[in-house]
Amino acid sequence: MVLLSLAFAAVLLISFMKGAFGGGFAIVGIPLLSLAMDPLQAGALLAPLFIAMDLCALVYWRPSTWSKPDLLVLLPGLAVGIGLGFLVLRFANPHFVAIAMAAVTLFFTGLWFTGGGLVQVSPRSLWKGAVAGTASGVTTMIAHSGGPPVAMYLLPLGLSKTLYAGTTSLFFTVGNALKAGPWLLVASPDWTLMALCLPACPLGVWLGWHFHARLDQRQLYRACYALLTVTALKLLWDGLRGYGLI
Question: What is the model's pTM?
Answer without folding.
Answer: 0.84
